[in-house]
Design goal:
single chain, 11 strands, alpha+beta, 8 helices, 11-stranded mixed beta sheet, Hypothetical Protein Pfu-838710-001, 264 residues
Length: 264
């Protein structure tokens, strides 16, 4: 991935910028979310086509590629992971995340309802609470109010790091996040690894308008594939976890990148 980064990031740098304030001013009220997986070399062509189509790239702290670190929390029995594996429609994820360019850190709660809608809430936390916020009364209260969990039930299970490019179309009717160089480490097993040249794309579009990006993805034969970085990483790094469903996802990613993904 490091070699691919030397190609991807210069191209991302040539895409016209959009500010966080501009992006936050746009609300996708009738939102449809779709996920895709491709490889690094295909991403180069996608970025070139996106630039030609008038897409802009989010620029923060003077950069258009932003490194993120995320820590996923779960119960001793991995209830959140298993809810996803067992296809429960109503489920949650709890994580802490630091945006490396700015140093801003948050406790984030993602909730999926039985209509497939995902809603995210977050609250700022000090960056040194990434691996533990149980001593932060405000964060604990926020978790209790917005999730089905309390801090004493959760522990850090797994961390992921990746580099993100965020694009928005000229009409501000769709956004996409592009995650590259995905790496992970499991605190329970001590195993880690990476998704190598895999690129995870999430498209958020206003359902009232046609998606130009879907056409670009189709042109490059990039097909939808719903993946969770937490669940894929847990599958790869915890031999004791139930993982039959997610092993199929791993095999799909391996076919896309034409490479084997293994933990180390």
């Amino acid at each position: 991935m490091n070699d691919a980064r030397t190609i991807i990031e210069p191209i991302a740098g040539t895409i016209p910028p959009v500010s966080l304030e501009e992006m936050d001013s746009v609300k996708l009220l009738n939102r449809i979310d779709s996920k895709y997986v491709t490889d690094a070399r295909t991403l180069v062509s996608l970025l070139e086509d996106a630039r030609a189509a008038g897409y802009r790239a989010l620029e923060t702290s003077g950069a258009k590629v932003s490194p993120y670190t995320t820590v996923y929390y779960d119960t001793d029995a991995l209830k959140m992971y298993l809810d996803h594996h067992n296809k429960r429609l109503v489920r949650q994820k709890v994580r802490t995340r630091v945006y490396e360019n700015s140093g801003d850190a948050y406790l984030e709660i993602k909730r999926k309802d039985n209509h497939g809608r995902t809603r995210k809430k977050r609250t700022p936390i000090p960056s040194d609470e990434l691996l533990g916020f149980a001593g932060d009364a405000a964060a604990c209260d926020y978790l209790a109010r917005h999730s089905a969990y309390t801090a004493d039930l959760l522990q850090p299970v797994l961390s992921t790091s990746f580099r993100r490019i965020t694009l928005v179309n000229a009409a501000m009717t769709e956004r996409l996040t592009i995650d590259t160089d995905v790496r992970f480490s499991n605190y329970r097993t001590g195993l880690g690894g990476s998704l190598k040249d895999a690129v995870i794309i999430e498209l958020k579009q206003d359902g009232r308008y046609a998606s130009q990006m879907k056409g670009i993805l189709l042109d490059h034969r990039v097909k939808p594939l719903r993946v969770s970085k937490y669940c894929i990483a847990e599958t790869l790094t915890d031999p004791t976890a139930k993982r039959n469903r997610f092993k199929e996802k791993v095999r799909s990613i391996e076919k896309i990148i034409n490479d084997k993904i293994e933990s180390i």
